[in-house]
Each structure stands twice: as structure tokens, then as C-alpha cells.
Amino acid sequence: MNFPASFHISQSRRKLLHSLLLTTGGIITQSVYAEALTLTPRATEGPYYPDHLPLDQDNNLLQILGNQAPATGIITEFGGRVLDVDGKALNGTSVELWQADTNGCYIHSKGAPKGKERDPQFQGFGKITTNEKGEYRFRTIKPAVYPGRTRHFHIAVLQNGKRLLTTQLYFAGEPQNETDGLLKRIADEQQRLSVIRDFKPLTSDSQELVATWDIVVGLTPEDPEKRRGGPPPKR
Question: Which residue of 23, 72, 214, 226 is surrounded by the most CB atoms within 10 Å?
Fold first, then answer.
């Protein structure tokens, strides 16, 4: 399916743009849109970035290459564009996704909670390179909620092998959003709202969920020590 192109623009900034549309006769320049963009906030990588990457690393995490059975869970798809702070689409940028499976397990040697087993059919990690429009998308499952956290995806954006952004994506309407320490740590309200997406059913009679999410990044690589709190993990 094709995702609509959509900037994340806060309600207050939408009102500003509407006012500008009225006063400029409907002409809005790219620079004005750039002013309305919300920079995607950084977040911790977490302890479960894969310490053993799967051989299959595509953007469809539902099916591991060579396996017949699909992953267990609610099919969830999201995508959008990767943009810089000026609203320019970033072509050739790598977007990585890693997450818990339906049992709350990551593909990490210590990523399974006590008493839980990882779904062997779930890829757990994927990546995609943006096209000339900066577009990306993932097809995966709805991650499980586990103690201490709300439901979330882990995302990293890399350019020329250097990580520009580490962040997390959240589901609107989750009760745990109100108490999740990492989500609450995002002090700027607009930035916090920019990483909470409304995942809706694909059709009225479907359980499959879909959302659109544009990622807005600065172009200064992250400091690995600050990002991970220690030496980089083995890749």
C-alpha cells in the first residue's frame, strides 16, 4: 500500500499556517513548512539492540526468508518519509527497526523475559533504505507490552554508516503512555506528540493496523558513547 506524505505539524503551528494561507492567497513556501516541522526527539537505544543480527534483515519482519510459517501477532504497518530540519527528503538513508515480539522478547541473548520464549518465526529486526522521496515503510507486528514500559518500537536512522537519530515510536491510546518514564522524559510537548501515532485498522473489518510517521532529523551524527552508555555493541 502507499502511505500518504504528511508532515507532523502541531495544532498551534497548523493554525499559524492556516493564517498564513489566508494572508498570502494560498501560497506557502518550503521554508515556511520547514519552520512548522517538529524535530523527532532522541531516545535511548535500550539494552536489546540485537547482539546477533538475523541473516534476513529486510523491512518485512513477518516472514523470515526460508521459513514457511509467519510470525504470531497483529499485523502492523507504518511508514512515511525521512526529512531534514529544512523539510528536504533524505534519499539513501537507512532506517532500522527492532522490537519485542508478541511474547515481549527481543532477538538478543538476554532479550527474553523470565518464563517467555521468543517467536522463532519473527524477524525481530529490519531495515530499509529510503528512496528519492525519502520514503520508508515496515511491515511487522504489534509489539507486546512488558513490565515497566508502554508499547513501542525502536528506530534508528543512519546516513553514510553514521547514526543520526535513535528514537522510539509509540501507540496512541495506550494506558501505559501516562506512566512510561522514557516517554514522559520528553519535555517538549510537540516533540512528545510527534512520536505518538494513531495506529488504525486498515479497513473497517480488518485487525491489521496502519499508521503514517515522518521522521525529522538533524544531520549531526550521534555520539555512540552518549547514545549507548558504553562501548558499541557487536553488530
Answer: 214
